Amino acid sequence: MSRSLIILSLSLCLNGLLIGLFIGQKLHSEQPQYADRPLLQMIRNLPPEMRAPLRQALIERRPELQQAIGESRQALLQIQQLARQPDVQEAQLRQAFEQLHTGLEHLQQPLYQAIIQSLMATPAAVRQNWRTPLAPRSNPLPVEPFFEAD
After folding, report:
1. How many domains, the chain?
2. How far is CA 41 from the centre of its chain?
3. Closest Cα to residue 81, out of 72, 91, 70, 92?
4. Which among 130, 134, 106, 105 is positioned nearest to 54, based on CA atoms?
5. Per mean pLDDT, which range of 10-14, 51-55, 58-62 is the poorest?
6. What family is it from (predicted)?
7. Average pLDDT over the chain, rounded to whole?
8. What is the pLDDT of residues 73-117, one digit of tens each?
9. Most CB atoms within 10 A, among 5, 13, 112, 115?
10. Using CA atoms, how far apart are residues 108 and 111, in angstroms rounded to an integer?
11. Is 92 contained in some domain?
12. How far is the C-alpha of 122 from the C-alpha of 117, rounded, in Å?
C-alpha cells in the first residue's frame, strides 16, 4: 500500500472518529443542540417571549428530530466502517456522504418549521425587537471583490 493511501485512510478514520465523538456528545448532552451555528445564533438572540413557543414547537417535533439524528448517526457509522476497509471504493464513500447530507437536511427541516411556528405564535411587537446575528450593521463593511477579473 502506498504511503499516501495509508495517510488518507488514517485521516478519514480520525475525522470519522471525531465526527462520531462530536455527535455522540451532542446527543447525550443535557442542553438541546441545533443543526448549525447560524441557526443556534439566531435562536440565542430570540427575545424571551419567543423562547417558550419555540421550545413547545421543538417538543412537538421531537420524533422527527430523533429520526433525523438517527439517520445522520447511521450515515456517520457507515462512513467510519467504509473508511476502515482497505478496498473501499470512492462510489461507496460518495453514497455514504450523500446519506449523511440527506440526514442533516432532514434534521434542519423540523427545526425551521419550529422556528416558523414560534414566530407566528409571537405578537408582531415582540418580533420587531428581535435582532438576528445577520442584521444590517450601522457601519457596513465595504464591498470588495475577492477575486480580480482576468
Report:
1. 1
2. 12
3. 92
4. 130
5. 10-14
6. Belongs to the ZraP family.
7. 76
8. 898 899 899 889 989 888 988 898 888 888 888 888 888 888 888
9. 115
10. 5
11. yes
12. 9
Segments in the chain forming alpha helices (H): 3-28, 37-44, 48-60, 62-84, 90-120, 124-128
Integer Cα distance of 23 and 72 in angstroms: 9
56 burial (CB, 10 Å; 0-12 / 13-18 / 19+) is middle
Q: Does residue 139 belong to any structural domain of this protein?
A: no
Altogether, the residues listed in the chain come to a count of 150
Is 133 inside any structural domain? no
pLDDT at 69: 86
pTM for the predicted model, two decimal places: 0.53
Identify whether the C-beta of residue 103 lies closer than 8 Å to the C-beta of residue 36: no
Q: Report whether 58 contacts 114 (CB < 8 A).
A: yes
Residue type, 7: I
**Could you give the CA distance from residue 149 to residue 96 in angstroms, rounded to a whole number?**
37
Domain assignment present for residue 108? The answer is yes
Full domain range(s) for residue 73: 7-32+47-127
